[in-house]
Structures are given as C-alpha cells and as structure tokens.
Specification:
Layout: E1 5-6, H1 12-27, H2 36-41, H3 49-52, E2 54-55, E3 77-81, H4 86-97, E4 101-106, H5 110-117, E5 121-125, H6 131-145, E6 150-153, H7 168-195, E7 199-204, H8 217-237, E8 242-249, H9 255-263, H10 267-276, H11 286-297, E9 308-311
Parallel strand pairs: 3-4, 3-6, 4-5, 6-7, 7-8, 8-9
Antiparallel strand pairs: 1-2
Helix pairs in contact: 4-11, 6-7, 7-8
Nicotinamide-adenine-dinucleotide binds at residues 81-82, 84-88, 106-108, 126-129, 154-158, 177, 204, 206, 249, 251-252, 254-257.
Length: 318
C-alpha cells in the first residue's frame, strides 16, 4: 500500500531511522549508526514521501480541501472481529462512513451484517478460538480487501457468575474468546500489516479489566490480560509502525448487555447496579465506543500506542 504524506505528524526522518534500524535488527545484522543522507538516498518509492511531508501510517489525504469532506479512514482496509453485532458492527458502520473497507469476522451473521452495511463490507465466518479458522478468515479478509491496514478485536463474551458456580469450562470459554482470540487474530494479521508497511490494532478491553467487579472474575481476568497484551505488543511493534491500543468501555447498550439483563432474575435491579457505577448515570451507546476506536485507528492518534481509552461515562468507585 502506498503511504502518502500528510500535513501533520512527527519527524519523518527520525521515524525512518528507527524503521531502518529495526529492519537491521530483525535481519540479525550489526546495528550501525545510520546517517540521514543514507536514509534519504536509500528511500523506496513508499519512503520517498518522507522527503515531502510527514509520514503517518495508512494516512490517506486528511487535509481536506475547501468544500471536500475529510475522510479519516479513506482507503484503509480493516478486519473487525465480532463485526456482526454491537460495538464491532457500529465500528464497521463508522469506518465505512469515513472511507474504509471492512471485513467482518464473526461466528454469527457476518454475511448478513456485511450485506446490510452494503458497499465496502465483506462478511467472513470466523471462530476466534480456533487457530485454523482464524488463519483462514484473516487470509480471506486480506484477499477480499486487497491487504490489511487495521484490525479491531471486538469479538467477546461476558459471564456474570460467582466463582464457586463457575465451571472450568466457563472459565476456559471466556478466556478462549476474550484473550486467546485477540492473540490468534493479531498473530495471523501480522504478515498483512507488515506487508502494508504498518497499521493499527485496537482491542476491545473493558473497564472490568482495569478495576475489579464481583461475580465477574473470569471476564475481569481475561480483559486485564488483554490490556497487558495491548501494552506489550505496542512496544514489540512500535518500530514497525504498527500501533496497538485498547478501548475499555463501561456498560454499553448492546446485545451483550441485553443478554445479561435477560438472564438475571431482576432486570431492573441489575440495570440500577450498572447505572450506579456510571458518573453520567446512563448507559453508553455502541457509537460512542466506535468513535474512540476510530480515533485510535486513524492518523489523528499517530503518536498513541499502548494506550487505553476508557469510554465509561466516568466510573464511580463503589
Ligand atoms: N457491551 C458492553 O457493555 C461492553 C463493556 C465492556 C467491554 N465490552 C467488550 O466489547 C466487545 C464487543 O461487545 P458487544 O457489547 O458489542 O457484544 P456483542 O455480543 O453485541 O458482539 C460480540 C460479537 O462477538 C461475536 N463472537 C462471540 N464469540 C465469537 C467467536 N468465538 N468467534 C468470533 N466471533 C465471536 C458474536 O457473534 C457477536 O457478534 C467485547 O469484547 C466486549 O467484551 C462490551
């Protein structure tokens, strides 16, 4: 993918030095100081843009001219797990509106959701707990989109259950979907992100992965693991121009939350329990979370990696 100059951003030459040094390190060569002149002279066609402007990964024109709408995701190709429902679906909708093409990777309803979204969306069956399914789905996403510049790991399940009533199978299932899933999908997507010269990964963590909640132990621990995985991978991939961030939502009105409300004996009491923890006193919407995912997936967050944005209306400590 052609990386284009953008009128904003950090020091392009310094960034290229980092990339060149990183390539040397990966190739196992001795790392020598690299001069700015050699960087400029060895510039590939993609790198040539560095001479004229600032490099922002996957940044297509974001300096909209008068009378033009600025598309923050113009030309970007993004795979979204859990893209058939809730936050993943709303993210897909927003990304398409901002000029992206998306592949929805989901265990349920991915094709129906993609055709409802219309132009710019592909639906691909994927079980994020299966290594083989993930590998095939990510490859299919790369083929459908002609490459990959971004990944959003939104597939997830929650489980409100006291520990004493949590079977080992329950525990494993929550961790398989919420933590192993992002690991498998990220690993499978790396080749494509590297081939694109960099990209973005956004993980849907949770406020429950930042602060504990009772009767939610399996989910809290899986999401806390995802937060730490986000931070570790951000450092691991920093020199490759792959940014890794997380969004940690509070209670958001999606099918997941609805399922929780229908499973408890007293829906109203559970709703009040959710609301009591939110400073703003209401549930969030999937679109409010998708807007944070958008920020972390576009060039507006070009110097943010390893970050966690909490979208929770202000978490009240109780
Ligand atoms: N809704 C909330 O209140 C809330 C709060 C904090 C964090 N989150 C996180 O946000 C993410 C999205 O949640 P949501 O509310 O949109 O949920 P949702 O249930 O609406 O959507 C989740 C999607 O994941 C898919 N999925 C489940 N298991 C899968 C698997 N094995 N392989 C592939 N896809 C699978 C489902 O089919 C579904 O389409 C989740 O990771 C969730 O933990 C949600």
């Amino acid at each position: 993918m052609q990386i284009e100059p953008c009128g904003r951003g950090g020091d392009p030459v310094h960034r290229h030095l980092l990339l060149a040094q990183h390539r040397n390190r990966r190739a196992g060569t001795i790392i020598k100081p690299i001069s700015v002149a050699s960087v400029i002279s060895s510039a590939t066609p993609v790198d040539a843009s560095l001479r004229d402007g600032h490099l922002m990964e996957g940044c297509r024109p974001c300096n909209g001219q008068q009378g033009q709408v600025r598309m923050r995701m113009h030309g970007r190709r993004v795979a979204i797990t859990g893209g058939s429902s809730g936050i993943g679906l709303e993210t897909a909708r927003l990304f398409i509106a901002e000029g992206a093409r998306v592949a929805l990777l989901d265990l349920n309803g991915s094709e129906a959701a993609a055709s409802a979204l219309g132009h710019g969306a592909s639906g691909i069956l994927c079980d994020v707990t299966s290594e083989a399914s993930v590998q095939a789905a990510v490859e299919a996403a790369g083929q459908a989109l002609g490459g990959l510049d971004g990944l959003v790991n939104s597939a997830g399940v929650s489980l409100w259950r006291p520990l004493a009533e949590t079977s080992y199978e329950d525990w494993r299932r929550v961790h398989a979907i919420d933590l192993d899933g992002p690991f498998l999908v990220t690993r499978a997507a790396l080749r494509l992100l590297r081939a694109a010269g960099g990209g973005t990964i956004v993980n849907l963590a949770s406020g429950a992965g930042m602060r504990p909640l009772p009767n939610l132990g399996a989910y809290c621990s899986a999401k806390a693991g995802l937060v730490m995985l986000t931070r570790a991978l951000a450092l691991e991939f920093a020199a490759e121009n792959i940014r890794v961030n997380a969004v940690a939502p509070g209670p958001i009105h999606t099918p997941m939350l609805e399922r929780t409300l229908t499973r408890v004996p007293d829906r109203e009491a559970k709703m009040q329990e959710f609301l009591a923890r939110v400073g703003m006193g209401r549930l969030g919407t999937a679109e409010e979370v998708a807007r944070a995912v958008l920020f972390l997936s576009c060039a507006e967050s070009s110097f943010t990696t390893g970050g966690v944005i909490e979208v929770d209306g202000g978490r009240v400590q109780i």
